[in-house]
Design a protein that fits this description.
Number of strands: 0
Bound molecules: zinc ion
Number of helices: 8
Helix content: 40-55%
Shape: globular
Structural class: mainly alpha
Strand content: under 5%
Mean pLDDT: 77
Largest sheet: none
Oligomer: single chain
């Protein structure tokens, strides 16, 4: 089956992913019914942290750093850069396979792609009301956070982090984030709740704690100005 060849799971599998694989392998299971619901259709169940979770990382951290450090425009562009890599799902509609260089989690999930976005941000820094370096670093790191989070999900294929030098798909050795269907409209029911809970715990909570540390650090700095004497 084309689906089972395209979706090779090479990591400890969650029950949902095991079900997905079973559906792909056994044509007698329709995509709906027999336990194979629309979430378990491999064409639809593209395994990602949800798109808004990707945006949350630069949004919260950038906001915690303060407007003087990260302008509102730069914050917005950073959030967009963090979501942008998943544009590659459009490739599936064009017939490009998941595991191809330009398939899902391919070229747009590479360090090279993040660097390109960083360079564009540096060029556009006057529009972003920030310095070239700050724009490049913030947007580049925001874009890079996307594949790094995808690498921590417990399903799907890894990310082509080193494209164009290598098309190998990489995973993190630690993969606690639950698989998630792509698309907000599919984010319903108990499965959606489970995925959201996983992302809240493994992504939102550490990001919020890090942001809190940033805010406290800024507050301490403000209340203890350097001695002018
Ligand atoms: Zn992704």
């Amino acid at each position: 089956m084309a689906h089972s060849a395209a979706f090779r799971w090479d990591a400890p599998l969650s029950p949902v992913v095991r079900l997905t694989e079973r559906c792909a392998r056994e044509p007698q299971f329709p995509w709906r019914g027999s336990g194979c619901n629309r979430y378990s259709n491999p064409r639809r169940s593209l395994i990602v942290p949800s798109i808004f979770t990707h945006a949350v990382v630069p949004l919260i951290l950038g906001a915690a750093a303060g407007r003087r450090c990260i302008s509102g425009r730069l914050l917005f562009v950073g959030a967009v850069a963090a979501m942008l890599p998943d544009l590659d799902v459009a490739a599936l509609k064009l017939g490009i396979r998941y595991q191809d260089a330009f398939g899902h989690r391919g070229a747009t999930h590479s360090i090279a792609f993040a660097l390109v976005l960083a360079m564009l941000a540096a060029l556009a820094h006057p529009l972003l009301k920030s310095t070239a370096w700050r724009s490049a670093v913030f947007v580049g790191l925001a874009a890079l956070s996307h594949p790094l989070l995808d690498m921590c999900t417990n399903g799907g294929m890894g990310v082509a982090l080193l494209w164009p030098f290598s098309e190998h798909r990489w995973f993190s050795p630690f993969r606690p984030i639950a698989v998630s269907p792509l698309g907000v409209t599919r984010f319903v029911g108990s499965r959606g709740v489970a995925v959201m809970a996983s992302e809240l715990y493994w992504v939102w909570l550490p990001t919020a704690l890090l942001s809190l540390a940033l805010v406290v650090g800024r507050w301490i700095e403000k209340s203890n100005p350097p001695d002018q004497a």
